[in-house]
Amino acid sequence: MSLLVLKPGPLSVFQDAGRHGYQAYGAPVCGVMDQVAYRLANALVGNRTPLPVLEMTLSGPQIKFEQNACIAVCGAPFSLRCDKRPLAVNRPHLIRAGQILDIGAAPMLNGRPQGHARASLAIAGGVQLTTSMDSASTDLKSRMGGIQGRALAKDDTLILNRTINATAVDALDNFLDAFRIYLPAGLGLAARRHIRITRGVHWTLFDTRQQALFLNSPYRITANSDRMGYRLDGPSLEPEPGLQILSEPTAFGTIQVPPDGLPIILMADRQTTGGYPKIANVASVDLPVLARCLPGERLELTLISLDEAHQIFRQREALFAPLLQALAPLTTKIAAAFSE
């Protein structure tokens, strides 16, 4: 009941919804960068309650399956092959015992994989991981959760929580091949650089000229960006002279302005508190899109109201219920294939 890692990929880490409720004790939330890919991949392999996924950056691992398993890769359109046979992303696949799954980089566009930074691998039934503070999310700095708090490494052995009965393999494989899946466009899986933002708590501490500069100027994600935060390169912003702000709790998508005036977008592995002025927040519905962006890409920031942000978030969430209902036969079929 195990999988053997032949190649780990640049940065492959197990993540779930995050370590919520512990920021007051200095523990970062961490968790997946792309919530849509996380939820969709789990749904496609029949995990009724989302289980930790392997969130991969730039490309993924090469894994030898020593047991039958059902998998799905969602998010960026990474190259997916099983024993060199191409597989499609955003749908479930049966990997048989002895086969090798190879997850490579997304196709290149103008010499670079634009908008295709991350994808998530889900496995039906999940794998055995260490948990800390009610989460299996990997915290690379504190070395908590996942696989001993670190990224996937060569020769790692992943133990499956459940395995597919050998007598059910052929029937399940045929069922998955024939099953039709229609993903709503509103889920936000397509790459784009247009990011919607709302005013931050310190928006008015920047004068109208600074606000206009922020909204109307091109910003690029710098190479000095990671799961903790995206540093932007562009016009420098200046808050009110002599401004002093007490440290406050941070949130995924908060845009801070440090002393050099170049904005930082806080991401999943952000610190628990921060004292820089918060000029804006990325709308939650666009965080998965942002998570798939690569260093060097230009962002176009559009200001929307908080009510608009809530509305478009609800519109996206409303797409999940009918999708899960449509996937119910798939979930039932996979569950029936598990060995007792």
Describe this structure in words.
- By secondary structure, the chain is α+β, with helices and mostly antiparallel strands.
- Helix content is about 20%, strand content about 25%.
- The chain contains six helices and 20 strands.
- It has helices at about 35-45, 170-180, 210-215, 285-290, 305-325, 330-335, and strands spanning about 1-5, 10-15, 55, 60-65, 70-75, 80, 85, 90-95, 100-105, 120-125, 155-160, 195-200, 220, 230-235, 250, 255, 265, 275, 280, 300-305.
- The chain has a seven-stranded mixed beta barrel with strand order 12-19-16-17-14-13-20. Strands 7-6-9-4-1-11 form a six-stranded antiparallel sheet, with no helix packed on it. The protein has a five-stranded antiparallel sheet with strand order 2-3-10-5-8.
- Helix 2 runs antiparallel to helix 6 (about 330-335).
Please tag this protein with its features:
26% strand; 340 residues; elongated; alpha+beta; 7-stranded mixed β-barrel; single chain; 6-stranded antiparallel beta sheet; 6 helices
How many helices in DSSP terms?
6
Q: Which range best describes the helical content: under 10%, 10-25%, 25-40%, 40-55%, 55-70% or over 70%?
A: 10-25%
Question: How large is the radius of gyration?
Answer: 21 Å
- State the low-pLDDT regions, or none: none
Number of strands: 20
What structural class do the secondary elements suggest? alpha+beta
Largest sheet: 7 strands, mixed, barrel
What is the spatial order of strands in the main beta sheet?
12-19-16-17-14-13-20
Order of helices and strands: EEHEEEEEEEEEHEHEEEEEEEHEHH
Distance between the termini: 13 Å
Q: Mean pLDDT across all residues, rounded?
A: 93
| Shape, principal axes of CA atoms | elongated
Percentage of residues in strands: 25-35%
